[in-house]
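User: I'm curious whether this sequence folds into something compact or stays loose and floppy. Could you predict its structure so I can see for myself?
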Amino acid sequence: MKETKLLRRSYFSLNGRAGKSLGYKWIFCCLLLCTSSAMRAQIEVEQGWVENKINPMGVAVAQPRFSFASNSTGKNVVQTAYEIRVATSVTDLQKDKKLIWNSGKVNTDQSLHVVYQGAPLKSAQKYFWQVKVWDNQKNESKWSEPADFTTGMMEKQDWKATWIEPGYKEDSILRPSPLLRKEFKLNKNIQSARVIITAHGLYEAFINGKKVGNAFLTPGWTSYNKRLQYQTYDVTDLVKAGDNAVGVMLGSGWYRGTLAWGGNHNLYGKTLGVLFQLEITYTDGTTATVLSDGSWKSATGEIRYAEIYNGETIDHRQTKTGWTAPGFKDNDWTPVKVVDDGYDNLVTTQNELVQQHESFKPIKVITTPSGEKVLDFGQNLVGWVDVKLKGKAGDTVKIFHAEVLDKAGNFYTTNLRMAKAEDQYILSGKGEESFHPHFTWHGFRYIRVEGVDGPLNPDDFTAVTLYSAMPQTGQFSSSDSLINQLQHNIEWGLRGNFLDVPTDCPQRDERLGWTGDAEVFSRTASFIRNVNSFFDKWMQDVAADQLPDGRVAHVVPNVLGEGSSGAAGWADVATIIPWNMYLAYGDKQILEKQYASMKAWVDYIKSVSKDNLWNTGYHFGDWLFYHPDDDNDGRAAVTDKYLIAQCFYAHSTQLLINAASVLGRSSDVTSYSALLKDIKAAFLKEYVTPSGRLVSSTQTAYVLALNFDMLPENLRAQAAKRLVENIHSYGDHITTGFLGTPFISAVLTRFGYSDVAYQLLLQKTYPSWLYPVKMGATTIWERWDGIKQNGDFENAGMNSFNHYAYGAIGDWMYRKMVGLDTYEDAPGYKHNKIQPYIGGGFTSARASLKTYFGTLSNSWQLSGSNLSMDIEIPVNTTSTVFVPTTNPASVALDGKSLNGQGGQKAEVLPAQGTSGQFVKLELGSGRYHLTSTFVQDGANQAKQGVKK
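Assistant: Here's the prediction. I'll summarize afterward.
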């Protein structure tokens, strides 16, 4: 009975000041004490990660970190201990013999980032591990299923291979893809084999005729001169005792291909090359290596041309059949050239590699008014088309790629600018032939086909997507089909542009890692996919390309030069993404890695500011804000660029203070807190009238000032009111650009105007999120009106139909509409918030998120005045739940009135407005059903005051 009372009391927050400071610890202690046999349920480990990845290859840290999630059918389950063991074989692991590390039973609730403390790890070695856990209900789990990780090169001296390049004289115009090969013999039975490989350029490797791995566009794109990734592959199934062969095909890619504008090419080097090391362990315990060295040979083959922007030409008449298999006659091949390029810039792969994913068959075969043969795949996607063709030797088929058709129904490629996006396939005449590119990709929904006689057979064409293989983590749906399509478009904007780096667009002559686009979308991205490793890798390139004075480049890797740097809202990627990733994944290592970069950026702004005002330098401002075609009435939403810069100066300084606090750098907390006070004082003096009006009376100006707390508390409510008045003056339309859009809905909700946030979300006419949806978009557009109502296009010089920046509205949909959010006291959703804001005429909304602890979800439904919430809280976490209601006494948990549970009442938050209140509860892990009365009247739901 005593335990039951404790359990009941743990549901509810404590009232008063003491409750606010002690409530979370009180809940935790109550859960630890809860041992009621009625609540007993077995616990099991359901997933494990090493360095935030499942069964990773190429781990190259001396002390990798283990994370693990558990599940249980019980409620209020908290881990109280773990034990981890590691071995070099599954047999030893499961027999608990020859372990290289056993943590022993460690009494803690820590389940993320447990540091390995065993024997030194060896290079290119596969290790196996298991974990078991104990909980607060006296349950002990079974050992988890064995998982593994494979190390990369732990020391530079472990590299034995040498860099090799083609030995022939290259065609310097078309630059056909080099082929490099070697045959070798293995005289014993093989236990394991691993390849460690990288390239100058892009590579595809083959052993005995089979592709190594399932990735494409490797080794990916980094700031090559500072950081060149290598990949590690398990190839045990590809090698054999006896004769073997290895072949590597290279492409120009980002390394020496054309990038950006003005004929930029050979940015990192002029010659392609490969570094290849095969590590073999025989069943008798002996080892052998096969290395890239002077014994390899080189030639060219069927890929006659390959450029990222322009496409690929493949000539099957020049295919060297069998060149990756043993026994191929390579007498006329040229010996390779050995070069001394060293290993100093080599780093292991941290992020997920680019892989093939969804495939699409054409939904329509079109003959355009111009007589073009066109296929419609129904989805604007990124990748390439697999083609099956028949014809005579020398027949050429050309495939062109486009995102849209013009208003007459003709194929439209003007918005690709100088990018040709053209694949050419030359047939050998030997029956049915298959083609697809290797070293390029395209952004498209439609293809135009030339060179095929007669009508097109849709069965011969399959569009295949390419993007980094980040696990999907988030799901969202609602009662509104247009909003569901918007979510679809947000997801496909991510898929199309998270291709090793976060690109701005996938189709035109750009495809660069624009920092501003990435930072505004990063939090939305962290819900949809696990982007932890993706951004960890890219942010290290942000730091690598940061200039000595602290400026951050507009694009990373920086291919635009030193002058393209230091813009507000773009360069602030240095502070914004590390903090967003810390909140999303609870890993402070990214703050440790990026702290010097964060600090250098803030210090740069300080160095160019005068009297604490950042009013110098070039800035993009609120990029692509609303600007009507006829601006005679002065309705263009122009925001002062230096006002914006000052807001981001404050924001980056605040995030630096946050990071310093997490990392225990107290002196920096003190000094930058004083700086932040001066920055905000300077903002008030320069940009705010005594009555609180901003010098730029735009939505973006008020949104940034409110979101970053640039105004004193007594001026915030009137500023929020001015923001709402501005929105109404535009007919309830949004006018913000890239920098204002991500925050406008959250600011409206924070200051009690969720009804207005819903009006913006559901607006269907330009400018709005749903206007492109109504126009048939399947991805997020770069501009609010990429296609005008009359079918005309916006300026083709900058009019991508696959840009993710405006998709940042997803963050509000997940964190406010459904209510899944984080707390800074226990990031990574260990302590999470569930607080939905009901409105907009919606009758339901649902979101779920796979965290490192397990699935966190909320599904709410409104039927008349009856509101229900079904929530799931992962093991080893706690949730602060806010139930929206117009009648606090109506709230029930799992069918029981709160007033009837141990006499303990939940906290009722006071609210302004007419849409009710929130009843606040503290819940441990488990599944819960909550009900309440809620009358949706379209008015404000809850004005939370002016503090965050």
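Summary: The longest helix spans residues 641-662. The longest strand covers residues 373-389.
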